Amino acid sequence: MTFKIRPLARQDATISALATLMQEMQAHYRVPCPPLDEIIAGLKSMPASAEILVCEDAGSVLGFVAFSGIYPGPGLKPGIFLKELYVTQSQRGQGLGRALMQALAALAKQRGLTRIDWTADPENARILAFYDGVGGIRKPDKLFFRLDGEALEKLAT
Fold first, then answer.
1. How far is CA 154 from CA 43, 143, 144, 145, 151, in A?
2. What is the 3-state secondary structure (H, E, C) of the chain?
3. Least packed by Cβ within 10 Å: which of 24, 34, 69, 148?
4. pLDDT tens-digit series, residues 4-13
C-alpha cells in the first residue's frame, strides 16, 4: 500500500472524505454524531490552534491525527496534545497508526516541541498495547478532567 501523510488545509479537497471517516469514528466509539454537513463546517472553521494530519491513498482518507499545540509543559517547554488518532477499520494493523504517530513526532521535533501528551481508554487493551508499542509512557499520577454541559454553563455565568 502506498499512502501519504500530510497536513489538512482549511479548504482541503479531502474534507468530505475526512468527515465521513469521522462519522465512522463516532460510530466505533458509540457516541452521538452530528450530520455530515455540520462536521464539514466544523472542519472548515477549526480554531487556528487545531491541526490535523491525514493519511490518504488515491483520494481516500484512511486515517487521521488531530492535535493542538500546548504551553507550558515541564520546564516551561511547549508540546502537542494529541486529541484523536483514528484509522479506518479496514486498514487497522497495516502500520498506518504508527506512521501517523511517527509523522506527529517528526512534526514536534521540527517545531522544537518537547513532548506529545494524550489520553486513552484504560479498558481498551488494543490501543494501550499500540501506545506502549510506539514508546508512550503511561502517567498514572495524572487524572483527566472535563468541564462541559451544565457544569460549563454554571461556571461561565
1. 28, 22, 20, 16, 5
2. CCCEEEECCCCCCCHHHHHHHHHHHHHHHCCCCCCHHHHHHHHHCCCCCEEEEEEEECCEEEEEEEEEEECCCHHHCCEEEEEEEEECHHHCCCCHHHHHHHHHHHHHHHCCCCCEEECCCCCCHHHHHHHHHCCCCCCCCCCCCCCCHHHHHHHHC
3. 148
4. 999 998 788 8
Share of the chain above pLDDT 90, in %: 78
Domain span at 72: 4-156
Q: Residues near 36 by Cβ (< 8 Å), separated by ≥ 6?
A: 16, 19, 20, 23
130-143 residue pLDDT tens: 999 999 999 988 88
Q: With 90 as the cut, is the pLDDT of residue 2 above it?
A: no
Instruction: Look up the pTM and report it.
Output: 0.90
Number of folded domains that form the chain: 1
One-letter amino acid of 92 = R
